[in-house]
Amino acid sequence: MKRTILALLAITFATILIAPTIARPPMVLPRKNTWDSDIINSDSIDYTGKNVYVAVLDTGLVPNWRDYFPGDRIATHLGKGFQEPVHVDPQTGELVYGGFVTQTSWVGSTLSTHGTHVISTIIGYNYYAPSDALGGYPLPPLFVKGIAPDVTIIPVKVLSNYILPGYYEGKELVFGTDNAVAAGIYYATELKMEGYSPMIISMSLGGPEPTQVIEDSIDYAIAHGVIVVAAAGNEGTAGMDWPGAYPQVISAGANGWRYEWYKPAAAPPPRYRLWWLQDNTYGYRDIPEPTPPEDVYITDFSAREKAGQQLDVLAPGSWVRGPFPDDYSHLPWWSEGMGWYFSTPGLTNFYYVGGTSMATPHVSAVAALMLEKNPTLNQAQVESIIKATALPIPPGSMTVWDLVPTQGWYTYSWGSDATGAGLIQADAAVAAVPL
Amino acid sequence: MKEIFKRKVLFAILFSVLIFLRPSLEKIVASGQATIPPTHLGFVDKLGYYRVVGEVVNIGDKNIRYVKVNATFYNIGNTVIANRSSYAMLDVLLPGRKTPFEIVLGNKTASALVDHYSLSVSSEEYQGEKPPSLQIMQSTTFIDEAGFQKVNGTVKNLAMSNATYVKVVATFYNPQGKIVGATYGYTKPPTIMPSHTELFELELGEKADNFSIYGLAAESMEYAAVSPAATTVTVSLTLNTKTVNSGANVSLQVHVGNGTLPVKDAAVQLESDKGGVFNPQSGYTNSNGNFTATFTAPTVTQQTLITITANATKTGFIVGQSQKQITVNPISPPDLTRWTNFAAAGALAIAIIGGGIIITRRKRHRPKKRTKSHFQS
Q1: pTM
Q2: Which of A379, B51, B170, B358 sits in a 20 to 30 Å window from B239, CA-based?
Q3: DSSP per-residue codes, B28-61
């Protein structure tokens, strides 16, 4: 049976601005928006995702997740982990898959931070970075508002750490198998059937080819009223990953913002440490409403749609700030441990991370806002509304100041195969939901 | 659900006892040097799969590898339901050592029918070396927020070269000595440099609520774990001087012992932190536990303190180490006062060539009352 390794879809961006937390900040913090919530207009609506469940199928949460998230936003009693044993046969050197899944903790190791970052986009996170002061821009402790801050997160760990001697240069990998991911999908669907509803499955993961076991589980979930969102993939022009490419799944490509790293009214503009934080106190550059499409670019890595694939929408997936404690060993092998070039890892750091992994929770969170307004929406309705209200992004190119890949001015170009229906717009999507 | 789980465990324990009473039903087949002691246990896990956890012991006097355990599952009518096999968690098993194994019948329907099982084990002799050089330095167990048993700790590489893919294996025993869980993982990072210590974090997929003790073992591609019974060799490094000039020789002696007894054929490796040449740099101790070598000091431009390290190891012992420091003096410009004095004595003719000093003795001018030692520079 052919198997697909489902690798994480993350690209590590610069980690220069690491910030070790040195003390627990006050419990009640000022709530701030960021560029990504501004560009999708989720900062201007009253819905918060209350009474909506989002099962995040990922690496689980780091043990110190309470440093970042309000405890009542994580349904710890519903958390679950699934892993398929994979090992190297000592005699033949071949990879051997167990063919079954075992249950694991949803609490990942300190090295499994991808899921923590993904969840932070949905519900927000405590941010306190004393090193900002060292950089000349002191910030008080604050709470970065998520797109749907009142959602209830169900951590479902389907991506595990593996070391496979003789494979991938001996690097530690985090991945999930078809069986593990399918088990997570079925589990979330069972919860929905038990009354944890409405339920969204958010998958910042994907593999290079479709597999029946995954598609069957997705169809089962959708048939039972679960909303399924997945990453489009990070292979750019090579095409989309699966399950994001399935037409029945709502897929998310990754966009960026023209004025990333800009300091308002400065010439030349770059670099500005606090560009990501939308706050008047710190001289932010606000994104006008409605969002100008000419301020939106599509990343190189965001998967382009091929025949038989369906790319639905774009969401912020470039320079998304969030908690990313400790090291990068969980990243897929093609990241080449890039984070290590920039900093020494340490617990409770905050990093920029890019990838369609980061775009996916934005879409899941917007779906949660819609379901708060009308919990009876099904997959087709959510997809239809999100696409119909998206901001169309025409094919084009844009030169932006970027740390990766050039650490300077860089021109991104894209065609119609990269845009889907355009950039999600939370306000318009929620407004279009019938009561 | 918990009650059902407990009943299943109890049921399996009873059957383990029956192994001795009814060998026709629960036979264990040993192969060569490997055998399975009656500490194994079968139970249905949380997801409905039948699991067998146990351990294999190397009762021979040779290293073995490819330790593979086969389980045959039977229903209540003693009909075979399925066969499953799995490698033991340690890849190479030294004589007298044991390793856990776990076999999962990955089929829920079949698992529900399992009444009893039989086990057999096979292995083959491993000709290579697997020196015991990995030491579990410390470990702690705790239950994480999701209720899963975890073990954290550190492993130190006592060997003189990198240990790659360092695997740590944990076995959990209940108060009756039965194995109730086993798991393994790798250190982070999986390669440990010599004398370095790295972290490991293990998770037991199935809860071992009733474990009373646990055991840890480690191995890498190159090394085995230091046995709890193993002892550290004592290493003593002696230099014939504490100060040496650039480029000059120093005699070293390394003595390796075990208590008051000398250790013969211990592998010795010499290292310097700031250059210089050993001759030889490595070798084996003689019957007196001694190894001798010469160290040629490097040429330095200022006075330099060099640390010389002697590592010694032998199979069955933990690596021992000894260090000594030696001061290396730089090359100095000619001491004219001394030169004048020597010249006045008529003992030496000194020529300076290219910045170096050549001291030539002229026998005919040598005062007879002087000994050779006076002319050693």
Answers
A1: 0.75
A2: B358
A3: EE-BTTEE--TT-EEEE-TTS-EEEEEEEEE-SS
Regarding whether B120 and B23 lie in a shared domain, the answer is yes
Distance from CA of B70 to the nearest CA of A (A): 15
Nearest residue, CB atoms, A90 vs list B87, B146, B189: B87
B124–A contact, CB cutoff 8 A:
no
Residues of B in contact with A100 (CB under 8 A): 47, 49, 104, 106-107
Nearest to A107 among B87, B145, B205 (CB): B145
Residues of chain B with pLDDT below 70 are 1-32, 206-209, 228-234, 258-260, 315-321, 332-377
So where are chain A's domains?
A: 6-431
B243/B290 same-domain check: yes
Please give the CATH topology (third level) of the domain spanning A6-431: Rossmann fold (3.40.50)
At residue A404's C-alpha, the angle toward residues A254 and A325, to 5°, is 80
Whether residues B202 and B258 fall in one domain: no
Question: How many domains does chain B fold into?
Answer: 4
Measured between CA atoms, the residue of chain A closest to residue B167 is: A163
Q: What is the rounded CA–CA span in Å between residue A16 and residue A377?
A: 42
Which chain A residues are within 8 Å of B145, Cβ to Cβ? 63, 76, 105, 107
- Rounded Cα distance between B150 and B83, Å, is 30
Q: Tens digits of per-residue pLDDT, B152-194? A: 889 999 999 999 999 999 998 887 888 999 999 999 889 999 9
Closest CA to A105 of B97, B10, B146, B114: B146
pLDDT in tens, B267-284: 888 989 888 999 998 899
**Is B206 in contact with A101 (Cβ distance < 8 A)?**
no
The span from the CA of A123 to the CA of A343, in Å, is 27
End position of a domain, from candidates B125, B151, B180: B125
Q: Which of A195, A245, A192 lies closest to A222, judged by CA?
A: A192
CB contact under 8 A, B91 and A90: yes
* Co-location of B255 and B361 in the same domain: no
Query: Which two three-digit tokens encode residue A92?
Result: 């033949």
**What's B310's domain CATH number?**
2.60.40.10
Domain membership of residue B302 as a residue range: 231-329
Same domain, B117 and B35: yes
**Chain A residue with minimal CA distance to B92?**
A90
Residue at a domain's end among B186, B207, B225? B225
For residue A91, the distance in angstroms to the closest alpha carbon of chain B comes to 7
B5 in reach of chain A (CB within 8 A) = no
Tell whether B316 and B215 lie within a shared domain: no
Whether A98 sits inside 8 A of B106 (CB atoms) is yes
Find which of A104, A110, A163 to mutate to test the B interface (most B CBs within 10 Å of its CB): A163
The verdict on B237 and B253 lying in the same domain is yes
Compute the distance between CA of residue B313 and CA of residue B256 in angstroms, rounded to an integer: 9
Within this chain, do residues B243 and B349 fall inside the same structural domain, yes or no? Answer: no
